[in-house]
Fold this protein.
Amino acid sequence: RVPLKFPLRMLDYIYAAWMSHKTRTAADLPPGYNWAALTELDAEDFARTYFTFMDNFDALKLPDLLPGYQQIFLLLQEAQALADQGIKVAVVLGPSEPMVNDTLRENVLAKAGADAARFELGLPARIIGQMQQRVAADVPLLDLSLAFRERLLATGEKLYFRQNTHWDLAGNQLAGEEISRFLLQQWFAPEPAQVQAQVAVSSAGWRGPELVSDAEIKDYLQALFAETKKVLPKVTGIAREMQLFDGIVAGENNWAMAELNQAVELLWDEPPEMSQLKISFYGADGRHYGVLVEVKVDEGWQLLADRRAETVSGELQIKLNRQPVQAIRITGTFNSEQAENPANHYIHIEEFEWME
């Protein structure tokens, strides 16, 4: 769980150990908390971290946040698929502290020299709400921001650790109470019509002034909704599976890994008619790979690309003639880093895209 920060991996562990020592609090905590709850950031790191959280409420940052919303889009699709199978599933939005604690937010923005008027605190929930209505209408959505804000204003309880982004004991208890009440109303109350009205009120979060219109949010999400007809394939042969379809290329630690000579197979239940494939391989450090790419059409496998001699670094594009593709097979045969590091016997795929 130590993030990749330095070229030499050992430095990552040294840095993590130093940060752990630097931020560990002496305060006693109730049993059962995870390690993250045992740390406190210093005042400077705490303010900087929370100012980064404010990006979620800044309309100017929306283009950079689209890959993150794509992940939520995929999660909502999966939740609706579960609901279609008769499985009860709900989604809960947990607020970050700057959203519900006015004094803290003012201090964070003041230290950063940022104008509070440019941030819409309800923007993420409104965006997620539009997605939920269109792709997961049968999945109830609970936003905890109003409950957290009202509790803090009424009692002064902070609900978060002093200089830590996690809920404290009171925050966890409040979240548990709200979620249990919500599920009781949604799934176990005797009168569904009355329940729906109650849930609509109880699930609404705190919004504040709206700076982005509903029409603008709809336009922003078009890039995601345009892809709703695509059916993602089942993936096998991956040693470590990341998001192959999230639209992120060259993101740190954002690749799927497969052993060399172990085929990665993508299988569609409903064969899409493809006109082009684009496979992005990790190559930020200059590495390159030997690769075979095959396609399954009409029960037979066909070779699309043989790049064992002319190795690949970065992006590989392959044209097809709108064939109904049943499966794609990608096999790595060579990794240029393996000579210096024999343990590096993997192919790293950052992104798989296709056009229909």
